[in-house]
């Protein structure tokens, strides 16, 4: 999780890159199938809990970096990380199982996760319309997703829960 | 076994399937298991259902559909969008808990290879989303909510709730149900500019 680039960009990379590539994504199917078994298997539940804690810590760490760098404020990075990964999981289920593409927020950016996380690369030139093929539509959609999910992430991270008291905004 | 009407027989098969699925999981439930549970033959089940996929789909729809109906009734009993959203949130969290939630997890796992189960879970998933979307649309029309895109707002709200419930149920104990309920209220505030209390009785 070390590297350059804004924390928000890296958060986006980590969360968006982990969405299913498409409706046939095999690794997400493995996750979905495993969720169903965790309550019937202590061993699986324990492994799942560890993986979840690990991911949560990694996302919370990135949020902490963003706070330290003054990109945004967040009173509870661990809780925000839970909410962000929750939205990701919910969207992933829709994408992987129900093939839901509209409104377009369900695709994964084609750039490998580590490269984007390392460089913090952001897609700046987004072109829509005129797609000649399904592949092109998916590629376009993927670029849109990155942008939309950054704004979703921004809202989730920078909006303080009312019950936690003070209101804060993007720094 | 007493002589049953066809719809009663189908219902008995569905109930037996749910009993078996409850102990061993939807995916591991076979025609033979259900027949044994009913004290009958596999042939009887094949007579009423084309395939085991259809049996599992009918069982899932029966159990999960009841939660949806309860939520619809609770929403219909309220007269303004604000109270309707609170009623919805209150129904959704418990609806996604415990046994029904396990059934949803099983159904998601089976959906990829069983088209009938996928069709039912997709239909229910969209019905839940439509229910909350319609409340949001009414609230925006009435001026008490603000949302640029009610469909997307409904989608994000339910995605987060599903994901959080998943963390409670399947991932272990990083967060509590109380957190989920409180965050559902926070999310509604963020999405719609309102304060709701999803914990109300």
Structural class of chain B: mainly alpha
Mean pLDDT of chain A: 60
Strand percentage of chain B, roughly? under 5%
Number of helices of chain B: 9
Catalogue the unreliable spans of chain A: 101-171
Order of helices and strands of chain B: HHHHHHHHH
Helix content of chain A: 55-70%
Radius of gyration of chain A: 17 Å
Categorize the overall geometry of chain B. elongated
> N- to C-terminal separation of chain A?
22 Å
Which protein chains make the most extensive interface, counting residues with beta carbons within 8 Å of the other chain's beta carbons? A-B, 40 and 44 residues
Number of strands of chain B: 0
**Any idea what the shape of chain A is?**
globular
Spatial separation of the terminal alpha carbons of chain B: 42 Å
- Percent helix range of chain B: over 70%
Quickly list its features:
heterodimer; A: 171 residues; B: 201 residues; mainly alpha; 9 helices; 75% helix; elongated
Could you explain the architecture of this structure?
The complex is a heterodimer of chains A (about 170) and B (about 200). Chain A has helices spanning about 5-15, 25-35, 40-70, 75-100, 115-120, 135-160. Chain A is mainly alpha-helical. Chain B is mainly α and about 200 residues long. Chain B has helices at about 5-25, 30-40, 40-50, 50-75, 80-95, 100-110, 115-140, 150-170, 175-190. In chain B, α5 (about 80-95) runs antiparallel to α7.
Summarize the structure.
Chain A has helices spanning 7-17, 26-37, 42-68, 77-98, 113-119, 134-158. By secondary structure, chain A is mainly alpha-helical. In chain B, helix 2 crosses helix 3 (42-48), helix 6 (98-111) packs across helix 7 (115-141) and helix 8 packs antiparallel against helix 9.
